[in-house]
Amino acid sequence: MKPVIATHGIGVKLGGRLVLHDVSVSIIPREIVTIVGPNGSGKSTFLRALIGAVPLSSGHIDKAPGLRIGYVPQKLAIDATMPITVRRFLGLPHKIGLKTVDAALMRADVGGLGDHQMSDLSGGQFQRVLLARALLENPQVLLLDEATQGLDQPGSAAFYRQIEEVRRNLGCAVVMVSHDLHVVMAASDRVLCLNGHICCEGTPEIVASAPEYRALFGTGTKGALALYRHEHSHSHDHNHDHLHDHKDHA
User: Fold this and answer.
1) CA dist 25 to 59, 176, 247, Å?
2) Closest by Cα among 85, 33, 67 to 137
3) Which end of the chain has the lower number of beta carbons within 10 A, N or C?
4) What is the pLDDT at residue 156?
5) Half-sphere exposure of 190 (CA within 13 A, CB side)
6) Which CATH number fits the domain that encloses residue 154?
7) Residue 220 domain-assigned?
8) Of 14 and 80, more confident
9) Total of domains in the chain
10) Is residue 75 part of a domain?
11) pLDDT, tens only, 223-232
């Protein structure tokens, strides 16, 4: 299946420091890809590179013609003293029809919040409104940068179930960064372990057992990872479900 977006050996420098190097990733339609890695590993920078928010120092990105991308940032600060309803927030900066706004809110499972003030929303509601904003144009790729940061475990689990529902309904690919390994990796078709470059990638159960993953996250994660290990054996084709080993070029 032809990728909707693919990076080819991309590198990014921020403040003179090489944050990403030699990153090659292909995202195919409908798949859920989770990116994990320690703090400062370049996960958020990678997503920002995909939307063109940071310049590349090397490599290039190929996108399907007319590709529509939805992006949910790690956090968004809104002045609590500024009166703005959810519907009005979703209509900024360009005027968007009420039907489109309400449809996006329904897809994010917050259909009744249109007239609420943004400042009155709970953390979980706020994140779902940001999700609704990302869904306004029916994206073919949905990017989530630690979208459940600050939510408790049940709230995170509910949010990711909604993401799976969005994927089913829209048929979009999903690329998400998260630390919620025990929740997120279970929903993933593929996991990328990033630390400036791609250390390893593959299905969740393959990455969980990879030495490169264990070196970054330690063996203490083994119990959580066991939650989604399948009892039956897998056969992995050579195009998608295999583990790639990448040498550290640093």
Assistant:
1) 12, 13, 16
2) 67
3) C
4) 85
5) 25
6) 3.40.50.300
7) yes
8) 14
9) 1
10) no
11) 344 333 332 2
